[in-house]
């Protein structure tokens, strides 16, 4: 009997697919701790195995050490490339065993560039086949998985595969060559070894942030003045900003003692506020950051968890449209079984609201992010928040426009015109469905009549300064990258994270460090091609053309290699100059980034974050050593960063501790801090203990 192997991207997916397709309960097997499934679907023997993301990766071929240019590379098992990927070997071994039992093969990895490439690499390197069938789905619900299996394509999606492979290869040669060039420039110029990185997208992204930082640093504030009238209603002079002090003082002198204002005119205007579009990934990341202060990276991770649990559709989508093929009515019926959505869903069902306010962006592979209707069983607090946001966004997109009214009132204070505005909601429409996520504020004015006098309490002359442009946030820079065509929906948040890790940026406001600024300044002077966003954007378009079948992988790779060769030649000519500048910037940045405040004992010197090579751990010490021997230990397995915060309980400095894969947390240096134990519990670093066995935190 013919046996089929279905190849999945992740263990959670393999379980969902096995349970969906099995005539009866699938047989769960385990080897080396790797789970796979045996089942029958309509009598057919099926094996379901999984990878864990990329179990094959690119590696330099015939490496001669840390040199550049390097253009020879090959696909190898990931465990042979990196120790961090050793765990992938057992998955490779199990897939190899399953492949030997099978005569036909189906790829059921995520339907995107990465998923298609992961599946293809298993097909060609493990199964030793050139082709296979392809399942395409956007949710991990039973009905959709069965449909995807029974309607699977007879062939793999080769244009998507080639586009994904081209991206990997282009990013590999750019990343390895440019990062080596930067690192070796410091080594060859100063003899010091400091790993720096950049890439095809990372460089242009940092340039955007650096240009904004330079704009902020160069900004010179201008003085201006405003007149503000406080009373029964608050208003401002119709002129808005005054740029000449003597003019505004003259007006203020004229009206400052007035106790009433005359209502000169009242204008009302109504407008419809259309419902929001369904979420694409970028919009979800922006809204989660605005409403919940959850970073884009965390939002993507949480959305992926919700997807693998079959609670939402595939999150890595560029579409803000829901096609007619999606059974919205059934989704609403299923959502109505959850108490918090029951009334809202029933209202939409009653009014037969089944057509969302679709946006203009589309994705060839997946629709907008939407709930499946499956009721979440177990989920963390942050998962609940993101799930609630996605559900309410879809409900809102199906609702009516909100009707709002803006009222503009002009007042006269001794013939000086003052204006006040208020906006209120007349009919809530979609506001009701969006609930706590609704960004609109109610600014309702009292009922007024023309020629009516209103009381004034005070008229203020406000001296103000113009403000510099705001720094980008992790969410707004992703939006800007999307606008400029830099990176993909799936990679942008990771690129921003890499800028943090390389010490190019810091803080949630994405302040560019001296190292980041100097890197961009140096490359602008000596090798601007590295940070040229036009080049990156062009390559992005080329790879999309591969996906559309309008360009070949080979041609795109040849163009990328040719462009990179010119960049590296130019860089080599200026290597020593570049290295000296980058080395200086690195030293300056490290010094600045290590200071967390004044020493609480000597009161003179700075406290600095230091690293002990002997104990392989970070600690805090006074810079006045040996005169001042103040030191503080820090938790292990965390990267400490200055926070500019002071403990509100003991007034000791606080250090920001960054943990891989977890949320950063604030750490008070004072071991005897009265709030230490309570704080450690909140961070989940120690557990509650019975009062009879109370222990002290370490």
Description:
By secondary structure, the chain is of the alpha+beta class. It has five domains: 3-156, Rossmann fold (3-Layer(aba) Sandwich); 165-217 and 492-586, Orthogonal Bundle (Topoisomerase I, domain 2); 223-274 and 402-465, Topoisomerase I, domain 3; 281-397, Topoisomerase I, domain 4 (Orthogonal Bundle); 599-693, no CATH class. Helices cover 39% and strands 21% of the residues. It contains 20 helices and 23 strands. A six-stranded mixed beta sheet has the order 2-3-4-1-7-8, with helices on both faces. Strands 9-10-13-12-11-14 form a six-stranded antiparallel beta barrel. Strands 17-18-19-20 form a four-stranded antiparallel beta sheet. Strand 21 (639-646) and strand 22 (653-658) form a beta hairpin. Helix 1 crosses helix 4, helix 8 crosses helix 9 (296-308) and helix 9 packs across helix 12. The model is unreliable at 688-698 (pLDDT under 50).
